[in-house]
Write a structure and sequence with these properties.
The chain is globular and about 40 Å long. It is mainly alpha-helical. The strands form 2 sheets. A two-stranded parallel ribbon has the order 1-2. A two-stranded parallel ribbon has the order 3-4. It is 46% helix and 7% strand. It contains 5 helices and 4 strands, in the order αβααβααββ. α2 runs antiparallel to α3 and α4 crosses α5. The chain has 2 domains: 61 residues, no CATH class; 51 residues, no CATH class.
Length: 134
């Protein structure tokens, strides 16, 4: 993978690679996979971004792992998402975060992210995987 300008990129990439190779079930929603593709192919972020073929090959490699699955919205998605959007008065970048939080709530998942905005969503379990537990 590429080194990003994000100061915690190396730690985040290491954490992710360690966890996708564990025998624990990990949900990778399409919005997260698409965000990966958007970022790693972006010439405004990288001097030498990945081509879409290489980036897509990485996604396919993750999806081929036996412990990786894609969480899809359930029949309750509109209700859960609508409540999160209204409770937080979400706008702009908080809207796709609310979608991910709704997926996590519906499937009983924990969101692993450095984005503290997820604390706004009632019922969404989340943690920063780069914070050392005290």
């Amino acid at each position: 993978m590429l080194d990003a300008f994000y100061p915690q990129h190396k730690a985040a990439a290491t954490w992710f690679e360690q966890h996708v190779n564990q025998p624990v079930r990990i949900g990778l929603p399409w919005p997260s996979l698409l965000a990966f593709l958007r970022i790693v192919t972006n010439p405004r972020i990288y001097a030498s971004p990945l081509g879409i073929d290489d980036a897509w090959a990485q996604v396919e490699e993750w999806l081929a792992l036996p412990n990786i699955w894609i969480p899809f919205p359930t029949d309750q998605h509109a209700t859960v998402l609508g409540q999160l959007l209204q409770d937080t008065q979400a706008n702009a970048n908080l809207v796709p975060d609310a979608h991910l939080a709704a997926l996590a709530i519906e499937h009983g998942l924990e969101v692993c992210t450095t984005d503290t905005d997820f604390a706004r969503f009632s019922g969404c379990r989340w943690r920063n995987p780069l914070q050392v537990a005290s």
